[in-house]
Design goal:
Strand content: 35-45%
Number of helices: 6
Radius of gyration: 24 Å
Helix content: under 10%
Largest sheet: 16 strands, antiparallel, barrel
Shape: globular
Number of strands: 16
CATH topology of the domain at 82-99 and 123-360 and 373-391: Porin
CATH architecture of the domain at 82-99 and 123-360 and 373-391: Beta Barrel
Strand order of the largest sheet: 1-2-3-4-5-6-7-8-9-10-11-12-13-14-15-16
Structural class: mainly beta
CATH class of the domain at 82-99 and 123-360 and 373-391: Mainly Beta
């Protein structure tokens, strides 16, 4: 199991990698040692210039990618401490967690001459104790990257087939419905967002990663269909095992017993705002979910089936710094909204909003500063036991791109009415996240 003991170890690695390798004393050219005129490939870039710590596995990754196989390994470490609030029984000390992701992508057109075919595998592991509900009492969770003590789990493994030059895609296997198809302007298929969707690089609080009114199941067996009728408009639908566990294969829960499922349906439009430096991308998504599994009502009456909810997710770039189409420097904003039946769901209404600026400091083009706020209004059913009408979260972070493969992100979270149970500003959490690509 990969288990670093301190963030200092990561800092030491980064310092070693940053330092250019020492140069051997040069020998002047002589008849015995003529000047080098070799046209071989240039030497590997020093650690401070590589995109990954290992230089894409010391060059082997580049050769595999040419053949159609891409391998990535990344690790995320988070240290958080409560500086105010917390539940009475909680010891007010920091919490250190870590996780790693091993990704393997295969282009089957290159590997096996299967046109339009590809596969994806994700193995995850983790360590450490997070600031969980027992410490904070939050509805949403203060650390969405916390994975617990697990050596390695195969959390995603799916096959995708594309038709009509990628305008139609079918994906099936062990899926994560919060992450999927990529299209211009939208990061994922369901509840995607360009600025608030990745706990390893963006916000950590669960309310600013996905919409909590959507009953996303754990990673499990499912199928998704994506159709893009025009360049700017897409529709997609997906169904997956409602009782799945990411630590299992999924066959036991999908094909035995009650066989419940969750389905999602989404349509989106990609828009470009004009500016002096070129088009500024944005995406506007509208979706609904359907959960047929019986749910207990808060009033104690007979459980009901066929729960339905609606959601919206939007992101838009508002300021672009340069004319380079590949340069993402500038200001972007996001908005989410969700609605669910309060008789069956603890959070009946949800919204979040915020903004991100890439390159806020001159000369620091890859740094990111962001702030976001979210509020979940809980059911008004008295039997649910809530004493407050909502929980509100404010989070801000600044991601420093120390090296191309290493980012350090200090962050702060403020939580009002944690768990919709306690008084005003109760929890203040300070932390730092370190993300490294190997």
């Amino acid at each position: 199991m990969i288990r670093p003991t301190t963030l200092g170890a990561m800092a030491m690695v980064s310092l070693l990698a940053w330092a250019p390798a020492g140069r051997a004393e040069e020998t002047p050219p002589t008849e015995a040692h003529p000047a080098e005129t070799s046209t071989d490939a240039a030497p590997a870039a020093p650690g401070y210039a590589r995109d990954t710590l290992t230089g894409n596995w010391f060059g082997a990754g580049d050769r595999l990618a040419e053949a159609g196989l891409t391998i990535r390994l990344a690790a995320t470490q988070v240290y958080q401490g409560l500086t105010r609030g917390g539940l009475p029984e909680h010891e007010h000390s920091g919490r250190y967690t870590g996780s790693y992701d091993l990704e393997i992508e295969g282009d089957l057109e290159r590997l096996a001459r299967l046109r339009g075919g590809s596969f994806y595998l994700l193995a995850e592991g983790g360590w450490g104790n997070s600031l969980d509900d027992a410490a904070v009492g939050s509805l949403f969770g203060a650390n969405s990257d916390a994975y617990g003590f697990r050596s390695m789990d195969l959390t995603e493994f799916w096959y995708e087939q594309q038709f009509l030059d990628g305008r139609v895609r079918v994906r099936l296997g062990k899926l994560d419905l919060t992450g999927g198809f990529e299209c211009r302007g939208c990061a994922v298929a369901f509840d995607g967002n360009a600025y608030a969707n990745d706990e390893t690089a963006q916000f950590l609080n669960g309310a600013l990663v996905n919409n909590p009114t959507i009953p996303f199941p754990d990673n499990g067996l499912g199928v998704v269909l994506y159709v893009q009728p025009t360049e700017r408009w897409y529709v997609c639908a997906g169904v997956a095992d409602a009782q799945a566990s990411a630590t299992e294969t999924g066959f036991r829960t999908a094909f035995h017993g009650e066989d419940y499922s969750v389905s999602l349906y989404e349509t989106g439009y990609v828009a470009d705002l004009p500016s002096a430096h070129g088009p500024m991308p944005g995406a506007y998504r509208l979706g609904m979910w359907y959960h047929p599994q019986p749910k207990d009502r808060f009033d104690g009456r007979r459980p009901e089936r066929d729960d339905v909810g609606l959601y919206v997710s939007c992101d838009q770039m508002l300021l672009k710094e340069t004319k380079d189409p590949a340069d993402a420097q500038g200001l972007g904003a996001f908005l989410r909204f969700g609605l669910a039946d309060q008789r069956l769901n603890a959070v009946r209404l949800f919204w979040s909003a915020g903004c991100q600026y890439r390159g806020p400091v001159p000369g620091r083009d890859d740094d990111v500063a962001a702030i976001g706020m979210a509020r979940g209004r809980v059911t008004s059913e008295s039997e649910a036991g809530f004493t407050r009408s909502h929980e509100t979260v404010l989070e801000a972070y600044y991601a420093v791109q120390v090296l191309p493969w290493l980012a350090v992100s200090p962050h702060v979270q403020c939580i009002w009415h944690p768990g919709a149970m306690r008084g005003p500003l109760e929890d203040v959490i300070l932390g730092v996240r370190v993300q490294a690509a190997f």
